[in-house]
Specification:
Elements (H helix, E strand, L loop, with lengths): L12 H6 L9 H12 L10 E6 L2 E6 L1 E3 L2 E5 H5 L6 E5 L2 E7 L7 E7 L4 E4 L2 E4 L5 E3 L2 E5 L4 H8 L3 E4 L4 E4 L4 E2 L1 E5 L5 E5 L7 E5 L2 E6 L4 E2 L4 E3 L5 E9 L2 E8 L3 E6 L4 E6 L39 E2 L12 E6 L9 E3 L2 E2 H18 L3 E4 L9 H10 L4 E9 L3 E6 L15 E2 L8 H17 L4 E6 L11 E9 L2 E2 L3 H13 L10
Parallel strand pairs: 1-13, 14-19, 26-29, 26-30, 30-34, 31-33
Antiparallel strand pairs: 1-2, 3-4, 4-11, 5-6, 6-7, 7-8, 8-9, 10-11, 12-13, 15-16, 16-24, 17-18, 18-22, 20-21, 21-22, 23-24, 25-32, 27-28, 31-34, 34-35
Helix pairs in contact: 5-8, 7-8
């Protein structure tokens, strides 16, 4: 068969394909070629380049820009979270001054000239790998060889994984230690020098842990585990993040232990038979010793209740309740937005603003914490489910510029849909509400878009959402040294509007 295919687009292919009046008649081969053109097009929404910095008192990410094939970072972006620097231009010469990290009451300084590769740090001349640049009134330094500036300026050691753009200051890098305990089934314990908070999600039988804020490293890229449950592990660093993938021969489940310093990976529990949950579960939570945390829990001593009771409401419970979870709190500070601003303060402030907006719409609210208090993940699940919520919202913050809405990813999937009016498996109670959670996330994104806030909707294994017996979403707001980058009243108003639409007879409310 011989044919000629000639297609001219005045608009991007994606817009032509969506245009209701566009009609293109193609042979089957021509149609396949068109699809290839569409799917091989450049993706404009690709994640932007970033540098992750890990210091003893700060963990943050900053943008990376490219000029003439070289990568640059803003000097003030790089230094500001580590102290209170002053950077002033004097013509083409820029002067940096910041408190000396090694000597109280003294200052460290540097002089940089725009367009020059020379730089003077603490009075000593050194050379950059490329000329300094100024773009949009920001002084940019080449990323390659940035240690030649930071080591004398900060008086600290620097470890730079340049290809992955991960910068470790002051010996913060720590290796992941793995411990495989054989059994029926086996468990895999991941040990860390300090508490970690990775983003965890599953893809088939693989469990993927992504570390952006935690300075973890691994000495091996691939490791064969040769176990009946665990087949292998793979470690990768890319664009400011480290990813550890645990490959299994069955669905896997992650659980935190030792206050976040250990992650226990085990086989995901199979959904219980319908006849197995005939009696109400105990809500008593036995205490776990650090030694017992890496032992597979026995069938008679569950760490958590095995099921969530069906939602039979008590007469005193309001018909429509929203549970707000201000993430972290107490000794769990969350991410360090700056050395003096922890994530827990931003989430609590936003939670109070959201409560105010919901109550203004005559919606009952239950706060999981309304002070700087310690609340464990298990306590959050118990309190939330006992409140019989109509909606559950978890609030988070991180350094960066992207507003995200997360929908729950369950630790294990089942071919049988869950029935919410029966006892629900504790670790996957969200399965009976996942469709409503996705709908709520879409409504929240639409409400934010109306207020000129662009939000990305993504699935994530984010504790404790998978155990919540209600439509559940998590919001992660971008933050900087001043707090949330998005005005709290705008964000809370958008969320409250999306939630209020779910209230029965919402159409009559004003």
């Amino acid at each position: 068969m011989k044919f000629d295919l000639q297609i001219c687009f005045a608009k991007p292919v994606s817009k032509v394909l969506r245009a209701p009046k566009a009609r293109i008649r193609l042979s089957p081969i021509g149609y396949c070629l068109l699809l290839c053109l569409y799917f091989l097009r450049p993706v404009s929404a690709a994640e932007s380049d970033k540098l992750s910095v890990y210091a003893p008192r700060a963990r943050y990410s900053i943008p990376v820009v490219s000029f003439d094939g070289r990568q640059y970072v803003g000097l003030l972006d790089l230094i500001e979270p580590l102290g209170t620097p002053e950077l002033k231009p004097e013509g083409k010469r820029w002067k940096l001054r910041l408190p000396d990290p090694k000597a109280s009451g003294k200052f460290a300084d540097a002089e940089i000239e725009q367009g020059s590769s020379g730089i003077k740090v603490r009075g000593r001349q050194t050379t950059l790998s490329a000329p300094a640049r100024v773009e949009n009134h920001r002084l940019l330094l080449p990323l390659h060889g940035i240690g030649t500036v930071l080591i004398p300026l900060l008086g600290t050691d620097v470890t730079f994984h340049e290809s992955a753009r991960r910068l470790f200051l002051g010996g913060t890098a720590s290796a992941i230690s793995t411990e495989l305990r054989k059994g029926e089934p086996s468990i895999l314990a991941l040990h860390f020098a300090e508490a970690v908070n990775p983003n965890i999600h599953s893809e088939g039988n693989a469990l993927i842990l992504s570390f952006t804020r935690d300075p973890v490293v691994s000495f091996s890229e691939k490791e064969a585990l040769n176990d009946k449950l665990f087949s292998s592990s793979a470690y990768e660093e890319k664009n400011g993040a480290a990813t550890l993938t645990i490959n299994g021969n069955a669905p896997l489940l992650a659980k935190f232990a030792e206050n976040g310093r250990t992650i226990i990976i085990s086989a995901a529990p199979a959904p219980p038979a319908a006849t197995a949950a005939a009696s109400s579960p105990s809500t008593e939570q036995p205490q776990e010793s650090p030694e017992a945390a890496v032992q597979a829990p026995s069938a008679g001593e569950p760490v958590l209740p095995s099921a969530v009771p069906p939602p039979a409401r008590r007469p005193a419970t309001p018909a429509f309740v929203v549970v707000i979870d201000a993430a972290h709190g107490g000794s769990d500070t969350g991410a360090r937005i700056t050395p003096n601003l922890p994530e827990k303060e931003i989430t609590l402030s936003l939670a109070r603003k959201l409560r105010q907006e919901l109550q203004a719409r005559h919606i009952a609210v239950s706060m999981l914490r309304d002070s700087d208090s310690d609340v464990t993940l298990e306590q959050r699940v118990l309190a939330a489910n006992l409140a019989r919520p109509s909606v559950f919202v978890s609030l988070h913050a991180e350094p960066g510029g992207t507003l995200r809405i997360y929908t729950p990813v369950l630790p294990a999937s089942s071919g049988t849909p869950l029935e919410r009016n029966t006892f629900l498996p504790w670790q996957s109670a969200q399965g009976a509400f996942s469709a409503e959670s996705s709908s709520l996330a879409s409504a929240a994104a639409a409400a934010m878009d109306k207020r000129k806030m662009n939000a990305q909707v993504r699935p994530a294994f984010l504790q404790p959402m998978h155990s919540i017996a209600a439509p559940a979403i998590a919001i992660e707001v971008p933050a900087d040294s001043k707090g949330a980058k998005i005005p709290e009243d705008r964000l809370a108003g958008a969320l409250a509007e999306a939630i209020a639409e779910r209230k029965p007879n919402a159409g009559g409310m004003q």
